[in-house]
Amino acid sequence: MTTIIKNGTIVTASDTYLGDIYIEDGIIKEIGVQLKKDCEIVIDAKGKYVIPGGVDVHTHLNLDVGIAVANDDFYTGTVAAACGGTTCVVDHMGFGPKGCNLHHQVGVYHGYAEGKAVIDYSFHGVIQHVNDNVLDEMNEIVNEEGIPSFKIYLTYDYKVSDEGALKVLLQLKKLGGMTTVHPENHDAVNYFRNLFVKQGKTSPIYHALSRPAECEVEAISRMINLAALADNAPLYIVHLSNELGLKYIKIAQDRGQEVYAETCPQYLLLDEEKYNEPNNQGLKYIMSPPLRKKYNQDFLWKGIKDGNIQVIATDHCPFAFNKDKQMGKDDFTKCPNGVPGIEERIPLMFSEGVMKGRISINRFVDVCCTTPAKIFGVYPKKGAIQVGADADIVLIDPNKEVTLTKDILHANVDYTAYEGIKLKGYPVLTMSRGKVIVKDNVFIGEKGYGKFIKRQKNMYKNNFI
Ligand code: URP
Ligand code: ZN
Ligand code: ZN
């Protein structure tokens, strides 16, 4: 199969230029100006930006949190991703049965994704307890299964101790893998949760007040220092929500530590006032860490611009407002945590970031596509427009005006956290390995087309230090 994308404005993490892209059997074979090719498919991209498909390295498809299961599986979730201009996801595995080994969840997640995903995918491993067997097993997961990153949680049921975190950091440093962390101080959060419940303070705003920024920042700084103690192990902070945490990350980076930071659209665009919306609408935004005070947003945008934040992901974790989230209607502690966003990320970052002049279009491509692909080892197959890369390509029409509303989105959930936001610019075509799978917001791909990617180790490192 041969395809040519003609006359588009090609945007990479470093360049913007007019050109044509010639694709053969799903791979980019040539890039040039006015290429003369006789192709089966010709796509006119005049007036459109042509970017690498988005790479979302923080999703929770099929996530089972005990009281509820996230509503998107690997079919509905990846359809939504594709419609929003994302062509690769790296999903965070949920916890398995108590005491299970690492291979257990790898097997479960292959079962979830195979035959369902419509775009290519991988997983992050999850550590739910630390012992010698788990540490040994990591070697196989990294080197044989092609899963070189793991997440540890410093809160929730399977939180790891500081000693456990140190051991994971040391082992992954040795293996060339990446430790990713959900940083919140469990005991402090628990103290405030219990206090508020005892005082009858159970409305959604108390979710935010029970997990103040200092709870997150304390855990970030602790992990940064443990990473330094672990022979300067690489560390990736997920879903950074606030200014103070960014300051600590910057200090570590300035000291030469290999610390990466990810933030998400919700922390850039929404703030804690959302928890006060009438009729318990605030339940929609119950996520951890919670939305913060508005002033934090400018600092996070600056962190992206300055390079201290390397990745924008979604933490897509969709629970239905009218069902799952209602468990928290009388008590925020009973509400499943998480917010959808897999489809909204690229449109929001393009419109709110690029079109509003907060970040350049190249930085947008960098943080949404290229750098996540490098850090998590799917580059240059993904996250790049260059010869030899997979033809995972998205066309954005900068003149298309869209009002975000649940009805135009594809995730299997009954709300968007961004209802009513007016966007300038929207993805109009998504291609995965040379095949057009979304055209004008209509999914035309195939269930099960997506393939598991055995990932390489971090390729970003050299840019960083
Ligand atoms: O509230 C959130 N973020 N839920 C998803 C799981 C996690 O902590 O990343
Ligand atoms: Zn988390
Ligand atoms: Zn998450």
From TrEMBL:
Its EC number is 3.5.2.2. The keyword Repressor does not apply. It comes from the Bacteria. Keywords: Hydrolase, Metal-binding. Its cofactor is Zn(2+). Residues 49-436 form the Amidohydrolase-related domain. The keyword Hydrolase applies. SUPFAM superfamilies: Composite domain of metallo-dependent hydrolases, Metallo-dependent hydrolases. GO terms for molecular function: dihydropyrimidinase activity. Belongs to the metallo-dependent hydrolases superfamily. Hydantoinase/dihydropyrimidinase family. NCBIfam families: D-hydantoinase. This is Dihydropyrimidinase.
